[in-house]
Amino acid sequence: TAQETYSSNWAGAVLIGAGYTSVSGEMVVPIPRLPNDANSYTNYCASAWVGIDGDTCSRAILQTGIDFCIQGGSTSYSAWYEWYPDFSHDFSNIQISAGNVIRMIVNATSKSSGSATIENLSTGASITHAFRKGLGGDLCEFNAEWIVEDFSVNNALAPFANFGNVVFSNAVASRNGNTYGPSGAIIMDIY
To answer: Of the residues 26, 82, 119, 149, which is catalytic?
Structure first.
């Protein structure tokens, strides 16, 4: 909390430096719950992801993660990848369920190419998307992140699910050939 900052849509840990080229972390997929003022017609969601850039460098973000949503009594989960400013895209052919242990990995092979990988450690399934060229923005490689987000839908924040706790474990970032954990990161809270 000594380095706490506030955001309208991000909570988690952000390392700031130069030369971040890989970020990974593991999490247990939570069971989303309806917020107190919920109605049965609205889809309430949250997302957990790892990424490079997006905090002090906003021209591009390389990220991958899991969305968890609830509408009425029905929950849904999806795995996705994104090279912002392009849109996020769902991975197909990988099942995600509550309680699964998921490893998320992003690797930048250059400031305009890289990969995003989701591994379901509970089922043994894994899927990777390769970004072969920039999609409108080059990375700065200034930030490494482990984030829970209230993401945007149609230029507005999605109705936010009660996700309980999301804990990132085995959180590692690579920078200039060295590896770092989130110790010393700026802690972000959604306000």
So the answer is: 149
Q: Which amino acid is at 167?
A: V
| Centroid of chain to Cα 65 | 4
pTM (two decimals):
0.94
Using alpha carbons, list the distances in angstroms from residue 20 to 60, 88, 189: 13, 21, 22
Q: Which two tokens stand for residue 149?
A: 């987000």
Give dist(CA 25, CA 170) in Å, integer.
Answer: 5
> In whole angstroms, what is the distance from residue 73 CA to residue 86 CA?
32
Q: If we measure between CA atoms, which residue out of 64, 169, 58, 164 comes closest to residue 119? A: 64
Backbone angles phi, psi at 116, to 5 degrees: -130, 130
Catalytic residue at 149?
yes
Between CA 189 and CA 169 the distance in angstroms is 18
Eight-state DSSP code of residue 82? E
User: DSSP assignment, residue 18?
Assistant: S
Report pLDDT digits (tens) over 118-150. 999 999 999 999 998 766 789 999 999 999 999
Q: What is the spatial distance between Cα 35 and Cα 33, in angstroms, rounded to a whole number? A: 6
**Selection from 170, 27, 10 nearest residue 100 by Cα:** 27
Amino acid at 176: N
Q: Which residues pair with 120 in a beta bridge?
A: 102, 125
- Token digits for 42? 């609205």
